[in-house]
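Morning, I've got a small favour to ask if you have a moment. I've been staring at a protein lately and its backbone has me curious. You're getting the sequence in one-letter code plus the fold written as tokens. I've dropped the whole record in just underneath, so have a look:
=====
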Amino acid sequence: MTNTPAPRLALARWDIYCRVIDNFGDIGVCWRLCQDLASRGHSVRLVTDDASALAWMRTPGGQPVEVLVWSASEAAPLPGPAADVVVEAFGCDPPAAHVAAWRQASIPPVWLNLEYLSAEPYVERSHGLPSPQCSGPGEGLSKWFFYPGFTERTGGLLREPDVQQRQQRFDARHWWGQMGVPWHAALRTVSLFCYPQAPLPALLAALPAWSEGAPVLLLCTASVNAMLLEEALQSQGLAQRIQVQRLPWLSQADYDHLLWACDLNLVRGEDSLVRAQWAGRPFLWQLYAQDDGAHGPKLDAFLSLHLAGAEGSAWAPLLRQAMQQWNGLALGSRALALPEGAAWQAHALAWRERLSQQPDLCTQLLAFAQQKAQHGAGGTAPA
């Protein structure tokens, strides 16, 4: 992997705004961005309405980031020097008092709206477009849409400059021991991070064939109901072939370690999907289900990119079907249609290499903000 060096702002102060909706993905993405920016020498503040997940999500010894409570800072501008760049994560609508302060500043900050990750065509069309503020506290300012993505015409994916080097140095056997996991070389290991509606019986039924008869160790993240898994194993007569181990809440670094150490990763939402791709291991992605079914076209768009050039193979249709079944979007047999392991693993590495050719999101974000700052694109303060 290569990361293109990005120009730094002369005054590199960043404020990241994040509202936590109902899961950990929003703040997970924002925290990784904060850490990446801080590691490159920038001063970063995170303004969030719920910082509770950071108690376990933070990596000990990580970069210094100031965390501010949203409700305690709504009525007045943030204390201290004004930011050069503000990032509104996922359209979270920063407090009016803060926006008004940006408008009154002699040099308004560059205002970016970091959007959700998708492979759908609108992302390339919308990435980098301005949204002039014609009314409200930010009247006269411009907000810029910044879309993560999987192609060169998007903002890329979060990827720290040293992630590949850290993975190469990673000792899985030592980490399993630290986590108290009874690992041995004959086991096939699977990590499970999913939403409650995931078809767990279909996954369990598929694992013995996928592992080619080897015993399976299924490692459940703390949000997964391990008791339901155990009951499903008993009902299917698989308790002797699949062992379930519940994990504690993991820091972001240890979650990366889990993905690196496993043979197959089941991930959900946005942050864990990105980390699974950098792990270079086979994965199944469960999207956040939308009431209007929008997650269906979103999955199809991703699979069209992910499987481009491989549709003539024997394994690619199986992976497409498995992803659709895992998301409740296709009727199929009781067991998921998992591809053969070696071909799937080779594709995961090839996909990672393809993504690695693109500049990472933080590098692109820095360059984009620098360009807008040089052209005074934050807006013009009133006379």
Summary: The CA atoms of residues 107 and 254 lie 41 Å apart. The longest helix spans residues 341-356. The mean pLDDT is 93. DSSP finds 14 helices and twelve strands in the chain.
